[in-house]
Amino acid sequence: MSIPRALTIAGSAAQGSAGIQADLKTFQELDVYGMCAVTAIVANNSTTEQGIFTHPLQAVEAQIHASFEHVGPQALKTGMLFTEEIINSTSELISYYGIKNVVVDPVMIGKMGSQLLLDEAVEALSKHLLPTAAIITPNLEEAARLLNISTPDSPEAMEQAARELYHVGAQYVLIKGGSLQDYPAIDILYNGEEMTYLQSERVATIHTSGAGCTYSAAITAELAKGKSVEESVRKAKIFVTKAIEHALSFNRGIGSTNHAAYRKYK
């Protein structure tokens, strides 16, 4: 039996809500076979920072080669890459294997405030990785840092950021507006010609750890099934909204999105 297959290249989040853990849970919930290449181990949460421990470049590359050569992903997402050398190598391997369904989540700052991308790696991300993507999925803060502008504070500012990021080279830009106050949860998808608004009611919760990872992983899963970018984003928006609506609180700071919610609470 053939099953859609997806690879995530990202950091391992020890508390289980984000990173590789969120990606693999999302793939599983959407009936996609998940593989991973771990770039770093993140031992931080909302109450303490134990540290970030990066893997050697050789270890990251070996994992990517193993996933392509033994199983073969039909879609791929990147999350936390952390260093310039990992970004450059990942970009080269994406080109080497010729995979087209690439989702780049330009992870920079964690929900708990951890720095997940070194300052000197931002240029490499823009110059080498973003142009390989079918779609990039920055939140407002990430869009601002990529463009060196103030954080977008309105849907109109989000549209302008999407236009500017499109010229970096990705086929689609999804600006996530979940942190935009006084508005519903608005995201904007831009394909170089038209802006598509995706909107849901804002959920009154602080328990959103892993929401961005989950959103981009759901897009990746749908692309692996052969869906279009537009279809994939719409399905992913529903999936992550359900995950936030039924978020998990562990009574210790910021809780996790609930990756099983789409299946359990339809």
In brief:
By secondary structure, this protein is of the alpha/beta class.
Write the layout of secondary structure elements.
Blueprint: E1 5-13, H1 19-29, E2 33-44, E3 49-54, H2 57-70, E4 75-78, H3 84-97, E5 102-104, H4 122-129, E6 135-136, H5 140-147, H6 155-166, E7 172-177, E8 185-190, E9 195-200, H7 211-224, H8 229-245, H9 261-264
Parallel strand pairs: 1-2, 1-4, 4-5, 5-6, 6-7
Antiparallel strand pairs: 2-3, 7-8, 8-9
Question: Which descriptors would you attach to this protein?
Answer:
266 residues; alpha/beta; UDP-N-acetylmuramoyl-L-alanine:D-glutamate ligase; 9-stranded mixed sheet; 9 helices
Could you name the CATH topology? UDP-N-acetylmuramoyl-L-alanine:D-glutamate ligase
**What composes the largest sheet?**
9 strands, mixed
What kind of oligomer do you see? single chain
State mean pLDDT (0 to 100 scale).
91
Structural class per helix/strand content? alpha/beta
Spans of at least 5 consecutive residues whose pLDDT stays below 50 are: none
Largest sheet strand order: 3-2-1-4-5-6-7-8-9
% residues in beta strands: 15-25%
Globally, the shape reads globular
Terminal CA distance: 27 Å
Please provide the count of β strands.
9
Overall domain count: 1
- CATH hierarchy, class: Alpha Beta
CATH superfamily: Ribokinase
Gyration radius from CA atoms, angstroms: 17 Å
Number of helices: 9
CATH architecture: 3-Layer(aba) Sandwich
